[in-house]
Write a structure and sequence with these properties.
The protein is 57% helix and 13% strand. It has 494 residues and is of the alpha+beta class. It has four domains: 2-27 and 85-147, no CATH class; 31-82, Roll (SH3 type barrels); 150-339, no CATH class; 346-494. The chain has a five-stranded antiparallel sheet with strand order 4-3-2-1-5. It has a five-stranded mixed sheet with strand order 6-7-8-10-9, with helices on both faces. α10 (274-296) packs antiparallel against α11 (301-338). It is globular. Keywords: Signal.
């Protein structure tokens, strides 16, 4: 009992150490410019956060954390909206004056969902000052004390991952909870001042803490792994593809994957989205035009060169955004398999596993952006299939037929969209029932036939969630209320 009390006090001190941040954020509402940029010649749009300055002659400069971008004013729409941090600051003043632990914890949960992990943790110190005997808060304190303790170094872990990938020449770098095997990269990012490996480990640790807190705020306290999780980061696409071929060539068009049997995640820094491909095509055209403009000293050469640099920066932003999405997605697969949510040796139900990983998947404007982000691609696929009486039905998704069919048709993205949409609803609106369903899925026989699996999934789904028709009506209403960032900002201006 004395040990437990000491741990809780120690955790409380950890929270208090971060509480200065709360007082620093309680300033006036801060507004930011959000630039919606239409890629020339396409229907694709990019959303960028920063400050915008308009110039004479119909041009504008957008200052992004990763550099300045120059646009023609006719190609962009600038929307002013309160930043998430200013919304947080306003709510912080309200909950601090309320002297209500539950309200403070609710704001901490909101901050976590919106990508403000440090602010979320600092609120725990605010709650502790109000009532350190609060049962849920004491459990959160115990969890934070546990996961903030670095895991012991185990040489066998490094040997295992090196032997598996043939990475004897690769460098091993450790954080509190991960071992990252990577190609040596001494170059540091101009914005963060860290190497690629350091940036990836920082992101992995952010996902790690956010994952545990997301469940804990909802009353589920998962047991953290006792050993560092093994991750491989390839800098050369050829090396990544060699691993893909070794695994049977079934993971094409991915930038990362998790291997349950080996308990290893693998990534490759690369862009794969339509945004990235369109930008690359435009960049290739601009390289030639830019060189021609330099040599001929043609009129407007300066504007062309600035535009070419803008496209190069957009490529960097898009690539970083996609890397964040890939790492967060696969890290959740890895964590779910090592925290008891889904047994590593259990049945692999595609919509269940991919739905949860997609729910946690987070990338917005080249940074971690929180939990449950409304991704434009995911929700677009859901909307396309919403009215389809077969492919849009709950039976089709829950039975896991969707992934099998879409794979046969050559594109799994519609199935990912459906799995994301259903998980988003269940995680936010039926969390307790979803945890019961996950437990039942983990008990399925992994050797049963596809038809038996589909029948069992529908049976246990109905047992956990009740009438499927009523649930589907509630799901549709919920989905109609979700908005992407661009849609939300557009509504705010009307």
């Amino acid at each position: 009992m004395r040990c437990l009390t000491f741990c809780l006090i120690r955790s409380a001190l950890f929270f208090v150490a971060g509480s200065w941040l709360s007082s620093m954020l309680a300033g006036p509402t801060v507004w930011a410019d959000y630039t919606v940029y239409q890629l020339p010649g396409t229907t694709l749009q990019l959303l960028l956060e920063g400050s915008v300055t308009h110039h004479a002659g119909g041009t504008a400069t957008h200052r992004h954390p990763r550099g300045s971008l120059h646009f023609s004013s006719r190609d962009i729409q600038v929307i002013e909206s309160p930043t998430a941090i200013s919304v947080y600051s306003k709510r912080l003043r309200e909950v601090e004056s309320s002297n209500d632990v539950d309200k403070v914890l609710e704001l901490a949960r909101w901050a976590l969902q919106n990508g403000m992990l440090e602010q979320s943790k600092s609120l725990l110190s605010v709650a502790w000052k109000i009532d350190s005997s609060h049962p849920h808060l004491r459990k959160l304190a115990g969890l934070m004390q546990y996961i903030n303790r670095p895991l012991a170094t185990d040489p066998d872990i490094e040997k295992h991952v090196r032997d598996y990938v043939g990475g004897r020449a690769m460098t091993a770098t450790r954080s509190k909870h991960f071992l990252l095997l990577h190609d040596e990269q001494s170059a540091k990012d101009e914005v963060t001042g860290r190497t690629r490996a350091e940036m990836r480990l920082e992101l992995l640790e952010t996902v790690y803490e956010s994952y545990f807190l997301t469940f804990a705020f909802r009353g589920v306290f998962l047991r953290p792994p006792t050993k560092r999780l093994e991750v491989v980061l390839f800098s050369k696409h050829a090396d990544f593809m060699q691993m893909e071929r070794r695994l049977g060539g079934s993971l094409k068009q991915t930038a990362g994957f998790y291997l349950p049997a080996e308990n290893v995640s693998m990534f490759y820094d690369s862009g794969t989205s339509d945004h990235f491909k369109a930008l690359m095509q435009l960049d290739q055209q601009l390289v030639q035009a830019r060189e021609l403009a330099k040599k001929s000293r043609m009129a407007g050469a300066g504007e062309l060169i600035r535009f070419a640099k803008t496209i190069e920066l957009l490529i960097d932003i898009t690539r970083e955004s996609e890397d964040v999405a890939t790492v967060s997605h696969e890290a959740v697969h890895h964590l779910a398999a090592n925290t008891g949510v889904f047994p590593r040796d259990g049945a692999f139900v595609r919509w269940v596993h991919e739905g949860m990983a997609s729910y946690f998947e987070s990338a917005r404007m080249a940074k971690w952006s929180g939990i449950g982000v409304v991704d434009e691609s995911r929700i677009s696929y859901y909307r396309v299939l919403e009215g389809d009486p077969v492919r849009g039905s709950l039976e089709f998704i829950v039975s896991d037929i969707g992934f099998a069919l879409e794979t046969a048709l050559g594109d799994q993205l519609p199935a990912y969209g459906q799995a994301w949409a259903l998980t988003h609803f269940l995680f936010d609106q039926r969390f307790d029932a979803l945890m019961r369903f996950y437990k039942r899925v983990g008990e399925l026989d992994k050797d049963e036939s596809p038809q038996e699996r589909s029948d069992d999934l529908l049976k246990i789904f109905d047992e956990c969630f009740g009438d499927r028709t009523t649930l589907e009506l509630e799901w549709r209403r919920y989905m109609r209320g979700l908005r992407t960032d661009i849609e939300r900002l557009a509504e705010e201006t009307n």
